[in-house]
Amino acid sequence: MSSPSKPVDMSAYWLPFTPNRYFHQNPKVMQSAKGAYYYDDHGRKLFDGLSGLWCSPLGHADPRIGAAISKQYETMDYCPAFQMASEATFSLASRIAKMAPKGLDKVFFTNSGSEAVDTALKIAIGYHRVMGNASRVRMIGRERAYHGVGMGGISVGGMVANRKMFTSLMIPGVDHLPHTLNLSQMAFSKGQPIWGAHLADELEKIVALHDANTIAAVILEPVQGSTGVIVPPEGYLQKIREICTKHGILLIFDEVITGFGRLGANFGADRFGVTPDMITFAKGITNGVIPMGGVLVRGDIYDSIIGNGGQEQAIEFFHGYTYSGHPIPTAAAHAVLDIFESDDVVNRAKALEPVLENGLHALKGKSGILDIRNFGLSGAIDLEPVPGKLGLRALKVLEACIERGALVRVAGDCIAVGPPFISKPEEVEFLCSVLGDAVDAAMKVK
Ligand code: PMP
Q1: Which Gene3D superfamilies match (predicted)?
Q2: Which atom of ligand 1 is nearest to the CA of 254?
């Protein structure tokens, strides 16, 4: 392997969600990004197989986004987020609401997906309280869910590693539905598995155990992204929706990954034909160029909270961030949505879905691969773990992919991919073939 162009002092930086000691022995340093490619400090050109961290559907350095940011900086670099807002922030909220499923017509801005999740949980509790149901405070998440790293998010989340250090601090009163991945029933399914809708009935059991009147909300990623593209069985989300409606429980879709086109529709809610009461979003809204997140909320939830504010001057919802609706990410988001419209971006993602599906499933039969999943422009493969060395083989696959010119995402023994929507079909095919060769190479490492 070539050496890096210049040594980097890595001693002070604590890398998030990274095995830091392993990293220092196997550093990965990126130097630039353009279109669907990163360039690293070894001079390698790497196809961006995960669109950054699922956040760069338009690839990198689109000049239209940069120009919008510069212009906004010249015009107004910041606007206080409380008691006022920039004109463009109002219009961005309207624009996002127009893209969302009918009825979700209010937007609360945050800076990240984690904040969006914690905001949504607070809105759910606030709503029930103003509706006279103050006992509805319990939350229901799902095993293997990722909802960010706020205390609310890790509480409803289902990734053991993210929770176990903080157990006693997590919000009380949270239950978890089972995840829906069952390899004996659905390994190598293309798209949605047929088996498994009945797993939604577990929700009825939790409701029966606690009484519906204690439960505020169910939160789910329509497709579980960070833990390896776990696709909901056919009919599963519909059943969850029915049970929530029956018991007056709010349904929150965490669409931080699935929102803004990843599933070949504006939101996963559209693709699955299931409308939740709130949608959290982040990532793609600014193409990952600058942080922004938010919550789409059913209009009457907003009306109920606002309407119960009490005195004329009272603040109805004591929550917000200094950078909620910040003008610069707002400008970036407008530019991104302009590009979505002018370049028919969501349909491009949709057109690439079969290319990714075929490319990934062509790897079936390779030694070491336990499962292959795909939905929208996202997919994952599960590797046979090396006993006692969780995730090591997947890290080897990542390294072998980099040597061959592509970046993928590793989570435990799972490798996830989600290429930019601007990818050419042959680039998606290249990604899949690199992944296959990298698995072969990693299987040889003992
Ligand atoms: N929810 C989901 C579904 C996510 O995938 C993520 C990030 N991967 C988050 C929340 C957290 O977003 P952030 O890292 O922006 O806080």
Answers
A1: Aspartate Aminotransferase, domain 1, Type I PLP-dependent aspartate aminotransferase-like (Major domain)
A2: 3
Spell out the residues 6+ positions from residue 262 whose beta carbon is closer than 8 angstroms to its own.
Answer: 54, 57, 268, 284, 349, 376, 377, 378, 418
Binned at pLDDT 50, 70 and 90, residue 2 comes out as: low
pLDDT digits 0-9 by tens, 334-356: 999 999 999 999 999 999 999 99
Q: Which atom of ligand 1 is nearest to the CA of 226?
A: 5
How far is ligand 1, taken at its centre, from the CA of residue 74, in Å?
A: 31
**What's the whole-number mean pLDDT along residues 148-169?**
92
For the record, the structure tokens of 400 come out as 């072998």
Which residues make beta-bridge pairs with 220? Answer: 253
Q: CA 101 to CA 110: how far, in whole Å?
A: 20
115 CA closest ligand 1 atom index? 16
Which is nearest to 207 in space by CA: 120, 156, 143, 140?
Answer: 140
Protein residue whose Cα sits closest to atom 1 of ligand 1? 147
Mutate to test the pocket of ligand 1, among 51, 257, 280 (most ligand atoms within 8 A of CB): 257
Q: How many CA atoms lie within 13 A of 213 on its CB side?
A: 4
8 Å CB contact between 232 and 272 = yes
Ligand 1, pocket residues at CB < 6 Å: 112-114, 117, 146-148, 221, 225-226, 254, 256-257, 282, 293
- Residue 66 Cα to ligand 1 middle (Å): 24
Mean pLDDT of 27-48: 97
The chain-wide mean pLDDT, for the chain, equals 95
Distance 286 CA to ligand 1 centre (A): 14
Residues 323 and 360 in one domain: no
For 292-339, write each residue's pLDDT tens digit.
999 999 999 999 999 855 555 567 899 999 999 999 999 999 999 999
Most informative mutation of 226, 279, 281, 321 for ligand 1 (most atoms within 8 A of CB): 226
Q: What is the pLDDT of residues 253-289, one digit of tens each?
A: 999 999 999 999 999 999 999 999 999 999 999 999 9
Mark which of 342, 357, 376 sits at the end of a domain: 342
Same domain, 327 and 354: no
- Structural domain boundaries enclosing 135: 76-342
